[in-house]
Write a structure and sequence with these properties.
Layout (H helix, E strand, L loop, with lengths): L1 H13 L7 H21 L16 H20 L23 H23 L5
Length: 129
């Protein structure tokens, strides 16, 4: 389950530009909700070992909720769409005609890291176990 949750989180993160479309975002949110529902229904299953819990399936829905919130805040604060940045990458390489700024860097880091931190901290606190 770790691989499925992690892979879907990374895929959503890499293809974040397609999430700007409302239909794509809603379909992705529906699929992520189904994964989270599966995780909720099977977390207390006695046949799962403690290291194989399904809480990693919450990563996609946490990413989508985090992405929606961060994107809305970015649009309010900066007035344009956020860009995921790479190390020493320019916006010209992405086909965007504006300069990258610290908001893009924060958006990139927070969109990737916050869902992982939530899952790791909750599993550490034994809330989901």
């Amino acid at each position: 389950m770790f691989f499925l949750g992690s892979a879907s989180h990374i895929i959503l993160w890499l293809f974040y530009k397609s999430l700007r479309k409302r239909k794509v975002y809603l379909v992705s949110f529906l699929i992520a909700s189904l994964l989270a529902l599966y995780a909720i229904l099977h977390t207390d299953s006695p046949e799962l070992k403690s290291t194989e819990k399904d809480y990693w399936l919450f990563l996609p829905i946490l990413f989508l909720a985090n992405f929606g919130l961060l994107r809305t805040l970015f649009l309010i604060i900066f007035g344009n769409e956020p860009l995921m940045t790479g190390y020493r990458q320019s916006s010209w390489e992405q086909g965007e005609y504006r300069r990258l700024h610290f908001g893009d860097a924060f958006f990139t880091i927070l969109a990737l890291v916050v869902p992982w931190l939530i899952i790791i901290s909750l599993s550490y606190l034994k809330i989901l176990n």
